[in-house]
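Narrative summary of target 7.
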Amino acid sequence: AAIHTNEPIYLVDAPGSSQTGFYIAFPGLEAGSAATTATRAGTIALGGTFTSRLNSLLREKRAYTYGVRAALDQHRHGGTLVIRTRIRADVTGPALVDLLGELDGIREGITAEELGKAQGAFRQDIVQTLETVADTALAYSDPHDDRLPADTLATDLAAIGALPAESVTPAMAAYDPARAVFVLVGDVSVIRPQLEAAGFT
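Modeled conformation, tokenized:
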């Protein structure tokens, strides 16, 4: 079933579920895109760390969820920007409204403090991907599969370290809800009235 709004929202019925699974997918970037570094930084600020905007609001302030994750997935022929979370079923509607509000906010850019946190989080992610021999092999073979240079990891680290905060603003235009697909998995008898009450008719 679909709720008609400016954003396509698809409901998958899971009767009796105490939570609603949120899966929101935006068209992303192909591997090697010039906008990758800025989009990566903005994505981390939006939902890539414990102190990210979505996690701070939906988990820490609202207590709607145990966590929210936004991630950039890139491949040779394209990619996606995906937000995933599981929300208490009884607050599905308010949570969706809050999430859309954060998408509005992130498209205006991020602060210097958020950029610093994103830079640190990306460096930490790189360290974790090199913890074992197998992980290190993957870290270097994946760029090869996408036909990227062998020094992509080093280049990415340098690029995000030199990134000015203002360059993130145009990159975050990618998080336009009008271009996204929203999939909510949960008890439709509980979800639908909340969406209708929130104006998703």
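The radius of gyration is 18 Å.
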